[in-house]
Amino acid sequence: AQVLGNDVAVNIGGASGNFELNVFRPMVIHNYLQSIRLLADGMQGFNEHCAVGIEPNRDRITQLLNESLMLVTALNTHIGYDKAAEIAKKAHKEGLTLKAAALKLGYLTEAQF
């Protein structure tokens, strides 16, 4: 909350100055430096108490990547937008992967995918 308050104060202080004669410059610098200090301390605590020791679940990452519908955009250049959209809609509606939907519709072979 303090960093957000500092951001508002910096924005108002920056907008309230005339040309290069900004009397709010000391406040802007103070709040900016205070925000940097708060965020740096927070990141250090986050690293020590949360991030250290985290291991990626590679099997789950692979599963989510294979099931992701966002990859359909790569098909646009090969089969066109309409067919790619149809593949994505079928995959979403039937709970299929993009590959399974593309093969089922017959727009791509397994080698092409």
From TrEMBL:
Its EC number is 4.2.1.2. Keywords: Lyase. Residues 71-113 form the Fumarase C C-terminal domain. The keyword Lyase applies. Pfam families: FumaraseC_C (PF10415). The keyword Magnesium does not apply. GO terms for biological process: fumarate metabolic process; malate metabolic process; tricarboxylic acid cycle. One of its GO terms (molecular function) is fumarate hydratase activity. This is Class II fumarate hydratase. It comes from Serratia marcescens.
